[in-house]
Amino acid sequence: MFESLQGKLTEAFKILRGKGKITENNIQDAVKQVKLSLLEADVNYKVVKDLTEKISQRAIGEKVIQSISPDQQFIKIVNDELLNLFGDQPSLDLHSRPAIILIAGLQGSGKTTAAAKLALWLKKKNGRTPVLVADDVHRPAAIDQLEALGKNIDVPVFSGDRKDPYKIAKEAVDFSIKKGADVLIIDTAGRLQIDEEMMKEAEAITEIVKPDEILMALDSMAGQDVVNAAVEFDKRLSLTGFILTKLDGDARGGIALSTRYVTGKPIKFSSMGEKLDQFDLFYPDRIVSRILGMGDIVSLVEKVQEDLDSKKMEEMEKRLKKAQFTFDDFLDQLHQIKKMGSLSSILEMIPGAQNMKDLKIDDEQVKHVEAIINSMTRKERSNPEIMNFSRKERIARGSGRPISEVNKLMKNYDEMKKMIKSFNKMDKKGKIGKFPFQMK
């Protein structure tokens, strides 16, 4: 998430590292690098200009705190200004019965999937009883897709006659009342670009159902044209907020910052990955912390508590205390952690760990890891310390993988031991022990 922006901003902070104090000269160099970082992340020029001017003014007028280094002071200033831009944690208006949420957006923005993800999130996190409405009659595949997604998460999908979007919207309200639903999520039609017919249809549906929330799905990997689309949608529909989608892709961060600044409307949810439970509220403080390379411990703790098998983790903690962590344990823990999402997305939440590229293991690599471990003898899996070159060579031949991958696995095994020890320090209250990865 925002890896490019994160990397560029880190370079800006390095300019002040080791400096005795903040001066007008070194601040200007750092601000210039921040400006370039934001522009390369495809942030709207007006946003960049306003944001960097505020950062510069604050930094130059900042009182030097002797116990804090200049780069840390500058990070704090950038952090504060980004938080000011994003605004406070947005809320969702669900007071009506049923509360009606209309999802709009361009085709290909992940709108239909976002609607299903929102339904699952409301069901799991809020104890709501949602109904999905397939109201994109111009793309039959969208109706089929939403029906399949609804079946997946056990949420009713209303599609009516699959022809008349206005009739479907009107009948959906009655359907939801009969079903005893308290939230109605309407997936509207999208186009590849702003289209007058699409906008008029969305306006008419809005007039019929009078939604409590009108959310636009925003593709975080798209360019500045999407910002213009967001402005038009807001102008015509009076949006209440955005859902930022595809955050697991090559998201540069520009869309999030630009749309918030230009429209003044909040980003309410973030969506990443193909799994339907990879969806949550948009937490400005957590996102900014990740952008600045400071991790996101709160989200990590929540994911650990939600996704990991506590009984297995307790058993593993006992084994670790006895120094009994084996390659079988390593594989088991790798599968446990994969439940939380990609390993790279987990590392992103750990302060300073985003640079540990060797630990970025995808699903295909997990298969390779399994092949290597399965090629070990029982003795080798139980006693990794006996591993020598000839054993590694035999394992490489048996697994069909190069010996470099066997060596890499040995290294990852050591790093996994450190990571699991850290996870096991998280208690039921969400407290966390010291992580082995520190910012440098």
Helix-strand layout with pairing:
Elements: H1 3-16, H2 24-40, H3 45-61, H4 70-86, E1 99-104, H5 111-125, E2 130-134, H6 140-153, E3 157-158, H7 165-179, E4 183-187, H8 196-209, E5 213-219, H9 225-237, E6 241-245, H10 254-263, E7 267-271, E8 279-281, H11 284-291, H12 297-307, H13 310-321, H14 327-338, H15 343-347, H16 363-374, H17 378-382, H18 389-399, H19 403-423
Parallel strand pairs: 1-4, 1-5, 2-3, 2-4, 5-6, 6-7
Antiparallel strand pairs: 7-8
Helix pairs in contact: 1-2, 1-4, 2-3, 3-4, 4-11, 5-6, 7-8, 9-10, 13-19, 14-16, 14-19, 16-18, 18-19
Characterise the protein shown here.
- This protein has 19 helices and eight strands.
- It is of the alpha/beta class.
- The protein folds into three domains: 3-86, Four Helix Bundle (Hemerythrin (Met), subunit A); 99-282, 3-Layer(aba) Sandwich (Rossmann fold); 299-423, Signal recognition particle, SRP54 subunit, M-domain (434 Repressor (Amino-terminal Domain), Orthogonal Bundle).
- Strands 3-2-4-1-5-6-7-8 form an eight-stranded mixed beta sheet, sandwiched between helices.
- α2 runs antiparallel to α3.
- The longest helix is centred in the C-terminal third of the chain and has 21 residues, at 403-423.
- It is flat and about 70 Å long.
- It starts with a helix and ends in a 17-residue tail after the last helix.
